[in-house]
Amino acid sequence: MPTGKTTRHAASVPFRAADYLRTDADIAGYLEAVLADGDARAVPRGLRTVTDAVGGMRALAERTGLSRETLYRTLSERGNPRLDTLATILAAFNLQLCVRPMRQTRATKRAARA
User: Fold this and answer.
1) Radius of gyration over every alpha carbon of the chain, rounded to an integer in angstroms
2) So what's the pLDDT on residue 1?
3) What pLDDT score was predicted for residue 108?
4) Every domain of the chain and the residues it spans
């Protein structure tokens, strides 16, 4: 029979990925996962998360030489970073753009041999 008492639980805390991005390797791995998803809309969101991890928009503006307004616009939900802006932001995170072959599935390997 219930006694009417409830158990108190600690309040949940929202997950913030930025709290776990402590090293260059953490940041690189996070952004690589964001890019691997293939959703271009996730890129500005991922860059904003990293921006939060490295000290915020003011710190990023100082590192890049770009205005905060430009960064806010570029990293907004509707943002679409130009390649040179993206490279500048990544350099501020101590990262660089690179290109590598996509992983091939068995079907694409067979098609390449044909």
Assistant:
1) 20
2) 56
3) 63
4) 17-92
Give the global pTM: 0.75
Which DSSP string do the residues of 11-63 spell out, in sequence order? Answer: PP----GGGG--SHHHHHHHHHHHHHT--TTHHHHHHHHHHHHTT-HHHHHHH
What whole-number distance in Å separates Cα of residue 65 and Cα of residue 79? 18
How far apart are alpha carbons 31 and 43 in whole angstroms?
8
Count other C-beta atoms under 10 Å from residue 92's C-beta. Answer: 20
Mean pLDDT of the 9-20 span = 87
Is residue 45 exposed (0-12), middle (13-18) or buried (19+ Cβ within 10 Å)?
middle
- Region of 23 (left: φ > 0; alpha: ψ -120 to 50; beta: rest) is beta
The encoded tokens of residue 78 equal 């509707």
- Separation CA 14–CA 16 (nearest Å): 6
